[in-house]
Sequence to fold (271 residues):
Amino acid sequence: MARADKAADIAEIAENFRTSTAAVLTEYRGLTVAQLKTLRRSLGETSNYAVVKNTLTKIAAKEAGVEGLDGLLAGPSAIAFIKGDPVVAAKGLRDFAKANPLLVIKGGYMDGKMLSAAEIAKLADLESREVLLAKLAGAMKASLSQAAALFQAPLAQAARTIEALRVKAEVDPSVIGGAGAAAPAAAAAPAEVAPVEEAPAADDTVAADEAEATVADTTPEADSDVPEGAEVEVADEVAELSTQPSDTDSNIEASVDAVADDSADGENTEG
Fold:
């Protein structure tokens, strides 16, 4: 191989390392050209499966900053440069290796780290990016639906409660008013009865006024029947009686005189 061709191959391999998300090294000993075409189709359009020379690949890996591949570059080598989902490519390689045991997966390189054959097998067992995104979208949609149901549940329950209260209030209005509505009704009842109770009092007052008026009308008539001369005579007699000592006063004076005489006789006897 001419030096220029070698330089071109090295540059191409180095560029594939730089632009790939992952790279898987395999040994294709014994595989036919038809089988290799089938393998390339199974990896998809986002992956490039290329047969490489070990010496040129080591030089290209160093230029691209990929380290640790020297131990894997032995025998007929081919590299799957993966530019899409590494899980999809790993699944394709695993499935093809099961159907064609001549394909040997040696190892790989991803995110600046070397991968063993066992780690690539675990990577193939993972779900693809599309499946994970679909599940994530489904989980998020379910969460949103649950959240919407949780938000709508209190509103629906409140609406049912209000409707039940409205139906019950149509049958029994006191359900809404309660004790507050009954109290004004009870307070209003005495106000309506009050005028009936006060009516007799007003009649009694009128009757009393009429009785006083009757007495006032009859009293002057009784006084008018007494002669004016008789009133003067009665007054004179009362005056004479007040000036004369009564029998009671005379008796009291006699008793006082008797006691005074006894006291005087007692003093004379002692002397």
Notes: Residues 179-224 form the longest helix (46 residues).
